[in-house]
Structures are given as structure tokens and as C-alpha cells.
């Protein structure tokens, strides 16, 4: 009886306008529907000194590695940005990077960009053409991984996306 009386008084106070309920949104994220500005940024490069192993890391997006009869590694990086305005998109482009570096017997290609959600969201696609003889390790969190035509070892990790590996000898 006490519970239904309390609920009745609460409902009456709400209907009478004596009680005001304010819902506070705790997230600072802007809905994707409000990110009406979009742009792409493309960067390409080549590494002529190729070690025996290549590690590729792309936080959010696709990774494609294709073996070929080449002596260098060529790569192409496409950053896709959706933002609230052009200034926010430029901020994301300037904060994002695709870096290559060689340490011991490993070439590392790594993409990094700031956390999405406040004024922009980012997606990154990375494509590499590598010598067939190299071993390849890849890691992405949100995107498809495709690896083909290699003679070396292959290891692919993908948190939330498909992994397609073909023609590995």
C-alpha cells in the first residue's frame, strides 16, 4: 500500500508540474547524423630496404597485403573523416599518422589517430604491396583483413572483422 501511494503521489506531482525531471546526457559524443562534413586524405610511400618480416597495425579500418615480384614495399593509406565542420576534419587529419620504421629484421607500418567521437570520427584503410618472400603480421580492430600471394609466414589478428588469406605457399 505504501509503495502504490508513493508512486501515486510522484505521478500526481509530475502531472501537476510540481516536479521537474532533468535528464543529463553524460557522453560528450556527437551523433554521427550531425557529422555532415566528410573528407578523405591519402598518403603513399615506398620502403626500398625490405627486411624479412613486416608488421602492419591499423586501429580502425581495412588492411590489404598483396605479395608480388617486387624488391620494395609500396603502401597507400586512406584516412576517411566525418566531422561536424571543416575545421574539425582538418584537426583529425593533422592528428592522424601513418608511420614506417625498421627495427632489427622487421619493417613496421602503423596507423594512429585520435579518439573519434567528439567532433569527428575516423576510418583508415591501408594497402601494401610487398615482396612475396616476406613474412607478414597484421592487426586491426575494426575492419577487414585481406592477405594474398605470399611465400612467407602469415599471422593476422582482427578484433571485429573478417580475415581472408589466400595463395600462401
What does it look like?
By secondary structure, this protein is mostly beta strands. It is elongated. It starts with a helix and ends with a strand.
Strand content bin: over 45%
Radius of gyration: 24 Å
Which regions have little confidence, pLDDT < 50, spanning 5+ residues?
Answer: 1-14, 17-27
H/E order of the elements?
HEEEEHEEEEEEE
Overall pLDDT, averaged? Answer: 84
Total beta-strand segments: 11
Structural class: mainly beta
Can you tell me the overall shape?
elongated
Q: Numbering strands along the chain, what is their spatial order in the largest sheet?
A: 1-4-7-3-9-11
**Major β-sheet profile:** 6 strands, mixed
Cα distance, first to last residue?
A: 76 Å
- Roughly how much helix do the residues carry, as a percent range? 10-25%
Task: Determine the number of helices (DSSP H or I, runs of at least 4 residues).
Answer: 2
Question: How is this fold's topology laid out?
Answer:
Elements (H helix, E strand, L loop, with lengths): L1 H15 L20 E11 L5 E6 L4 E6 L4 E11 L2 H10 L1 E7 L2 E7 L7 E12 L3 E6 L4 E6 L3 E5 L4 E6 L1
Parallel strand pairs: 2-6, 2-8, 3-7, 3-9, 8-10, 9-11
Antiparallel strand pairs: 1-4, 4-7, 5-6
Brief digest:
The chain has helices at residues 2-16, 86-95; strands spanning 37-47, 53-58, 63-68, 73-83, 97-103, 106-112, 120-131, 135-140, 145-150, 154-158, 163-168. With 169 residues, the chain is mainly β.
Label this structure with key terms:
single chain; 169 residues; mainly beta; six-stranded mixed sheet; elongated
Amino acid at each position: 500500500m505504501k509503495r502504490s501511494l508513493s508512486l501515486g503521489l510522484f505521478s500526481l506531482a509530475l502531472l501537476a508540474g510540481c516536479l521537474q525531471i532533468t535528464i543529463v546526457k553524460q557522453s560528450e559524443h556527437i551523433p554521427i547524423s550531425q557529422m555532415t562534413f566528410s573528407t578523405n586524405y591519402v598518403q603513399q610511400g615506398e620502403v626500398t630496404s625490405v627486411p624479412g618480416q613486416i608488421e602492419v597495425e591499423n586501429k580502425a579500418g581495412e588492411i590489404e597485403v598483396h605479395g608480388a615480384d617486387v624488391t620494395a614495399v609500396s603502401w597507400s593509406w586512406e584516412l576517411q573523416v566525418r566531422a561536424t565542420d571543416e575545421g574539425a576534419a582538418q584537426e583529425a587529419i593533422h592528428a592522424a599518422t601513418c608511420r614506417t620504421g625498421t627495427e632489427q629484421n622487421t619493417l613496421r607500418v602503423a596507423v594512429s589517430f585520435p579518439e573519434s567521437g567528439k567532433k569527428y570520427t575516423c576510418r583508415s584503410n591501408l594497402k601494401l604491396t610487398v615482396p612475396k618472400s616476406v613474412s607478414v603480421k597484421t592487426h586491426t580492430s575494426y575492419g577487414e583483413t585481406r592477405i594474398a600471394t605470399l611465400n612467407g609466414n602469415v599471422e593476422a589478428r582482427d578484433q571485429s572483422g573478417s580475415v581472408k588469406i589466400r595463395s600462401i605457399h
